[in-house]
Amino acid sequence: MNKLVKYLLVIAFLLSFNACKDDEPPLPDNVAGFESTELGFDNTKTEVEVKITLSRAETAATAIKVDLTPTKLVYGTDFTTDPVTTANSINVSIPAGQTSATIKVKKTAGITLNGDENIAMKISSVATPALTGTNTNLKLSFSAITSTGSNVTLNGKVGDVTYANSVYFDLSGSNQTGVDRKSWNLGFYSGADFRVILNPAYQSTAKATTKTDINAVTLADSVGIALNHNVEDPTTVSVADDWTGDLTKTAIAEISATEAENKVYVYSFEGNKSADKWFKVKITRNGTGYKVQYARLGSTTIKTLDVAKNADFNFVFASLETDKVVSVEPRTKSWDFSWSYSTYNSGLNTPYWVQDYVAINKLGGVSGAQIMNTTVTYADFKEANIAAVTWSTANDVIGTKWRGAAVPGTTTPAGVRTDRFYVIKDGAGNVYKIQFLSYTNTDGGERGKPTLKYELVKKGA
């Protein structure tokens, strides 16, 4: 090959390379905004966290200024903030590589309130290259609120990890709580019954051995036990909890008052499918609570963890990996639905693992329904339409039905299903309508950060 041909090939390569770069779409604006536009203190809170988020992380810290306008409140007397307020403004910084920062507002103990006290917060400046977004104003009421609705981004993505968090959302409080989905293994029911659930966001499965003495269970007991789900095998439904939330259909049987009746279980979770990584677990009653004995399947060192029931919560959660009781769900009445990675129905009535699973808080008195646009549209759904709703308390009344995956071999992309919306009645009787807006790059969204809008249709009594 002569020099001229080589030269022309190099030029052609460079031109094609630059052309490819030019064809790449520019990134959308990186905008900052409040996670919610209204928040409130309920009777249990003395501190509220106000979160500011960026659309995506920056390579350098992003400085943000927030102005405060208190109504019938005095800084330092009735409330304080962290970071501190100077001249009615707070300077916050979102660290490099992260997408959020938090302002803590603490109510002074013992103050007398009339119920109309509040703080108006406004994002007044954002350092470049980021810009201010749409949610630049927030009202923090010093009493409980009943939100009339908002546009929301659920922040399940953390850094580059798309499904890092399970997100719990409270419609009336316009508030979300993100929790590391892998932070717990077992949940212990706080109601009258003694029930234990597996973490569905952690690919958890469990199966009873024939033994009741945990010391007698060894690696040899794993022979013949399959904890890897198989969508084509209907028997695998027994190794996972019921996806509708029926507590009588959990992988771990009800904990008997007779200790000798409680079997030792083998327990597996995400990334730990080989038997030497499994746990062996025996759960018994301990007064009004639970006693958990556990160890890796091949270990002879048995650990014990006492778990007390807490009537303020549906469940009390424990991590076998960190040997601790951990905080997961908000209080029973402080959330309405969750979004996460989860166990769900494969369509063959067998368990499999899905992303973007939305579960309602049935144990908190929440019910819901799916409404097709052919019946009534989201915009037209009013209080008069509530009477015709058939309410369901199944966890999966929303499930993954709100979004569609890409269809292999077709041009059908992934995206939210625009032919339907949902209504939710919370534990206080408030009725909201909800419409999902995006969840992936083909519908204008981002995986791990689904967006939705909701609106109060009827306030509870």
Q: What are the defining features of this structure?
A:
single chain; 461 residues; mainly beta; Immunoglobulin-like; 3 domains; 5-stranded mixed sheet; disordered N terminus
In short:
With 461 residues, this protein is mainly β. Helices cover 5% and strands 37% of the residues.
Task: Write a structural description.
The protein is mainly β. The protein folds into three domains: 115 residues, CalX-beta domain (Immunoglobulin-like); 141 residues, no CATH class; 127 residues, no CATH class. It has one helix and 30 strands. It has a five-stranded mixed beta sheet, with no helix packed on it. The protein has a five-stranded mixed beta sheet with strand order 2-10-8-4-6, with no helix packed on it. The N terminus is likely disordered.
Poorly predicted segments: 3-24
- What general form does the structure show? globular
Largest sheet: 5 strands, mixed
Query: Level of helix content?
Result: under 10%
The strand line-up of the biggest sheet is 5-7-3-1-9
Number of helices: 1
What's the topology here?
Layout: H1 3-23, E1 31-34, E2 38-40, E3 47-54, E4 62-71, E5 79-82, E6 89-94, E7 100-107, E8 118-126, E9 131-132, E10 137-141, E11 149-153, E12 165-170, E13 175-180, E14 186-189, E15 196-198, E16 205-208, E17 264-268, E18 279-286, E19 289-296, E20 303-307, E21 315-319, E22 324-326, E23 337-345, E24 351-360, E25 367-372, E26 403-404, E27 415-416, E28 420-425, E29 431-438, E30 451-458
Parallel strand pairs: 1-9, 2-10
Antiparallel strand pairs: 1-3, 3-7, 4-6, 4-8, 5-7, 8-10, 11-30, 12-13, 12-23, 14-15, 14-21, 16-17, 17-18, 18-19, 19-20, 21-22, 23-24, 25-28, 26-27, 28-29, 29-30
